[in-house]
């Protein structure tokens, strides 16, 4: 449990500061600690609450990770500008297309607002990314791994009727 706390604090600290290092261009990926059968989802461990709370301290944009057509939207970052601190992609499903965000995480961010001219936010001023999901990513290779900073959440103190844990 102590390791999980340190991991979450590190991820929160990474998102809270605006310094961006090209060798440490990560997307915080918050996931459940419980390993489940493929396709199973439990949740309820506080991922969205934890990283959603940053919106009270920082400028952010949130995207619906359950929207299967999210990455087909040519205006996906239309609300983002150089003052946006982080982008939260919340509740991603198991088929979330993480590779779509590779360039946005490690390079400049292309913004295409509706009815306006497209512009680029340079890497140093571009927001950081955070994803929450009840699933692991379905395609993980070396290119994906180097862009991820895992934040693992346990539901140890989350009482349930299945008696998985004895604590109330």
What is shown here, in short?
18% of the residues lie in helices and 21% in strands.
Account of the protein in words:
It is built from 4 helices and 7 strands. It has 168 residues and is an alpha/beta fold. A hairpin with a 7-residue loop joins strand 4 and strand 5. The two termini are 17 Å apart.
Describe the structure using short key phrases.
alpha/beta; five-stranded parallel sheet; 4 helices; 18% helix
SSE order, as H and E? Answer: HEHEEHEEEHE
Please count the beta strands (DSSP E, at least 2 residues each): 7
Structural class: alpha/beta
How many helices? The count is 4
* Molecular shape: globular
Oligomer: single chain
DSSP strand content: 15-25%
Radius of gyration: 16 Å
Distance between the termini: 17 Å
Mean pLDDT: 87
SSE topology:
Layout: H1 2-16, E1 27-32, H2 47-52, E2 60-64, E3 86-92, H3 102-106, E4 109-111, E5 119-121, E6 128-133, H4 142-145, E7 148-153
Parallel strand pairs: 1-6, 1-7, 2-3, 3-6
Antiparallel strand pairs: 4-5
């Amino acid at each position: 449990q102590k390791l999980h706390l340190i991991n979450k604090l590190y991820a929160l600290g990474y998102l809270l500061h605006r310094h961006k290092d090209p060798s440490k261009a990560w997307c915080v990926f918050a996931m459940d600690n419980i390993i489940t059968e493929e396709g199973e989802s439990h949740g309820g461990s506080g991922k969205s609450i934890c990283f959603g709370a940053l919106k009270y301290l920082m400028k952010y944009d949130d995207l619906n990770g359950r929207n299967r057509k999210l990455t087909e939207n040519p205006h996906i970052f239309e609300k983002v500008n150089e003052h946006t601190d982080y982008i939260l992609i919340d509740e991603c499903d198991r088929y979330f297309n993480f590779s779509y965000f590779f360039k946005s995480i490690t390079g400049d961010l292309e913004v295409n607002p509706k009815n306006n001219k497209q512009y680029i936010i340079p890497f140093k001023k571009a927001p950081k990314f955070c994803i929450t999901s009840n699933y692991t990513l379905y395609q993980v290779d070396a290119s994906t791994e180097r862009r991820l900073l895992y934040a693992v959440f346990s539901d140890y103190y989350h009482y349930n009727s299945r008696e998985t844990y004895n604590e109330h």
